[in-house]
Amino acid sequence: MPARRLPSVRHLLIPIGITGLGITGLGIVGPSPAVALAQETPAPGVAAPEIAAEDQIVFRGTVTVPQGERVGEVVVFSGRVEVHGVVTGDVVVLDGPVTVTGQVNGSVIAADGVIRLAESARVGGDVLAGEPVQIRPGAKVAGDTRGEFRFSLEAPLAVLGELLGPVAISISVLILGLVVVLLAPRGADAVADALGAAPLASLGWGILVILSIPVTAVALVVSVLGVPLGLALFLSLGLWWLVGLTWAAWCAGRALVHAPRGRVQAFLAGWAILAALGLVPVLNAAAWLLASILGVGAMLVAAWRAREGRRRDGRHRLGGPRPRSEDEVEAGIA
C-alpha cells in the first residue's frame, strides 16, 4: 500500500487566510458556537442551486455540524468540534477535543485534545491527536491514526543529540558575523587590527568586562532601586558572549586570510575553525570562553583607539594643519 501523506499545508493556510479576511472585512464567528448554515428552501418547481460548502473558523467556542448539513474547512483555535454531518475539508483544533459521528473527507487534527470517532464516523484522511484517539468499532479511517502525536520540531532536532547546542551557537555566530562584516566593514577591520596589535590589552579588557557585568548587576539588584537595570545586565551577558565569539571568529579568519582578500571569506574561515572547535566536548567550553573574552576586549580596544584618534585629529584641526602621514608623504599628497 503506498504511504499516505500528512495533511497538506495548503489545507491549513486557506482557512487561516479566510480568517484574516473575515477580521478585516465582514467579521467571522466569535466566542459563541458556530453552526453550519442551513440552505434556503427553493421555490416549487425550481431546481435547488448548488451552494459551495462554507468554511467554519472560530477563535474560541464550539463548531457543530448538524446531521444533514455540509461545511468546508473547520478550524478552531480554542474550543471543541462536533461533526454529525459532512465536512468536505479538514478539521483542525489547536486546543480542544473533536467528536466525529458523521463524515470528514479530509484529516482530523487535534493538536492538544482528544479525538473521538463513533461507529458511524468516516474519515478520508489522517487522524492525529496530541492526546489518545478513541475509536469505536465500525469507524473507518482511510489514513494513519496517531494518538499522543507531538506537533513540534523536537523529533527532527533530536537527531542532532548533544550537537544541537554547538550547532545552534555556530549558526547564530554565522548570521551575526555576516551582518557585522557587511554593514560595518571598517569597524571589523579596526577590531582585527586591535587584537593583532594589542592581544594582552584585549585579553585584560575582556576579562574586566566579563567579570564586572555580573558584579554590577548583583549590586544593582541588591540596591532594589536598580533592579530593572540589574536584570537587563544579567540578560545582556548572553549577548556579550555571542558578540565576543563573533569578533573572535572574524579576527581568526582575518589572521589567515589577509587583506585585500574579501572580508566575507576571512570571516567564514575563522567561523569554520570556531565551529569545528565547538563540536569537541569540554574543549568547546574553554574555546568559547577564551574567544569571547578576546573578542569583547578587542572590540573595546578598537573603540578606545577610534576615540583617541578623533581627539588627536580635533587638536590638529584646532592648532594648525594636521601632520601628513607616511602614506601621504610617499604618495606626494600635500
Please describe what this structure looks like.
This protein is an alpha/beta fold and 334 residues long. The chain has two domains: 9-36 and 52-151, no CATH class; 156-328, no CATH class. The chain has nine helices and 15 strands. It has helices at residues 9-24, 154-158, 164-183, 185-197, 199-222, 227-256, 263-278, 283-319, 326-331, and strands at 34-35, 56-65, 70-71, 74-83, 86-87, 91-93, 98-100, 103-104, 108-110, 115-117, 122-123, 127-129, 133-135, 140-141, 145-146. Strands 1, 2, 4, 6, 7, 9, 10, 12, 13 and 15 form a ten-stranded parallel beta sheet that branches. Strands 3-5-8-11-14 form a five-stranded parallel beta sheet, with no helix packed on it. The radius of gyration is 32 Å and the shape is elongated. Residues 1-42, 316-320 and 326-334 have low confidence and may be disordered.
* SSE pattern, N- to C-terminal: HEEEEEEEEEEEEEEEHHHHHHHH
The main sheet comes to:
10 strands, parallel
Oligomer: single chain
Percent in strands: 15-25%
Q: Report the principal-axis shape.
A: elongated
Helix-strand category: alpha/beta
DSSP, total strands: 15
Low-confidence stretches: 1-42, 316-320, 326-334
